[in-house]
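Q: What would this chain look like folded?
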Amino acid sequence: MIKFIKNKHKYFAQLLNKYLAEEDHLLRILVNRSEIDLGNIIVEYNAMHEKTLGLEIKMRFKGAFQARKFF
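A: My prediction, written as structure tokens:
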């Protein structure tokens, strides 16, 4: 809760990183935040990690779940 209050974009960026291996959780976060602040979360994620979120998703998921649909 404190992490969310301090910096909600960083909090969701950390959740995205945590759930990169779990398609259902990852998709839930992306869809739920898409109309709110997903762009800011992606910027925060990219600043925190060597690889961009789009690249991470493309590397981990093939087929129907493609990063290009979100980024």
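The domain at 2-69 is CATH 1.10.220.10 (Annexin V; domain 1).
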